[in-house]
Amino acid sequence: MSNQPLTVALLRPDSTRREAMALCEKYAQTADSVCVLPTWVADVLESELEVATVIGWPHGAANSQALGVEAAMATADGALELILFPNLSALKSGAELLVADAVQTVVDAAAPAGAEVTLWLPWEQLQPLERQSLARLAVECGANALLLPVDDEASAKALREFLPDEIGMMIACAATSPSAAYAHRLWSEWDGKS
What is the pTM assigned to this prediction? Predict the structure, then answer.
């Protein structure tokens, strides 16, 4: 197995418990972690994989208190990483304080269990300044990493330059994606600093 961390995910809204369990079994020897819907976190704990789940999936439009409860329940079920989907409606409305409150609430809810919080940065839906704003909020609120679904290496590098070393950056991509090698370098470089 390469030293590149591999997370497999099953987030279809109609995915079943059986499918989540089968995914863990299929990738038990080749993946490091699995990301499933919050419903199935406790069920997949028996696998050898670390378990991640999503908070605010897919739009992040819940209020901060609801996101905090969702995060606390997910960590109580055994999730070690929470991938938070930010409230795009609030961000695009200029309500940064609302977005920051949601991120901080999830980070605070994850802390007692020692779970990490990764903030999904919806690349295509944001303008460059909005990307920087969301990245800044992630840093200020104590998120551990940003997750970008992007194949644009130049843009990802520009955002990485904007971030302090304390926060990680990961790129969500298929192993055959043009960004896969860059995603591996990004992670390796950051992970070496932790």
Answer: 0.83
